[in-house]
Amino acid sequence: MDILQAIRSRKSIRGFKPDPVPKEVLREILQIATRAPSAMNTQPWNITVVTGKALDNIRKGNIEMLAAGVTPNPDLPFTPYHGVYRQRQVDLAIQIFKLMGIAREDKAKRAEWRQRGYRFFDAPAAIILSMDRSVDKLVSHLDIGALMQTICLAASDYGLGTCIANHGIMFPEVVRRFTPIPESDEIVISIAIGYPDWDFPANKLETEREPLENLITWCGFA
Ligand SMILES: Cc1cc2nc3c(=O)[nH]c(=O)nc-3n(C[C@H](O)[C@H](O)[C@H](O)COP(=O)(O)O)c2cc1C
User: Fold this and answer.
1) Is the pTM of this model over 0.90?
2) Whose CA is nearest to atom 2 of ligand 1?
């Protein structure tokens, strides 16, 4: 697939076919994606690929935590968004709920959707990116971001869909219980990966982007 086509066509996939993704395919994608740049070529990423029973256990553990009302405690915490950023977040939820036929006041269906995120959207596999806590946090997060997007782009060449997923790693203790990720690693992000179910309503979502002229400041041009 042409690189520009891959960038244009990549979108978050939140509904997958149950078909497993062959280990060899995942390996090839990661082999290619780890060509991503990193500061001083430090490659501060550790990659854990989870499927089968291990992934099911994480899903189950996450749902149990939610059901027990445990407050999510991700390794990489984030503060709530405000202003235009919050508005974009709300707009996204409105678009997804509309496609999924979830009414604003339907608490049960909204909770069900939330759980889906914590189940990695029922994807057959998930890629968890973590990094040694001893490396520089800020720069290494940029590096992991570069790898994250490169994985998603490479995956599309194999007909695979991805959704970068914060929700699945909101309870790091659950992830660690069923993977060998050590406490000395910060769990940064995960990617749900599998073959897209194109009939799944939320996969029809085409997210919007701010017009370029609102984002760019040109300097020194004639
Ligand atoms: C760091 C990061 C974390 C994300 N976490 C989630 C998540 O937990 N649940 C979810 O449904 N989407 C998640 N997404 C996907 C975004 O919602 C999505 O990328 C954005 O709405 C743009 O849509 P697109 O990917 O289809 O272009 C995440 C994306 C990023 C970059």
Assistant:
1) yes
2) 164
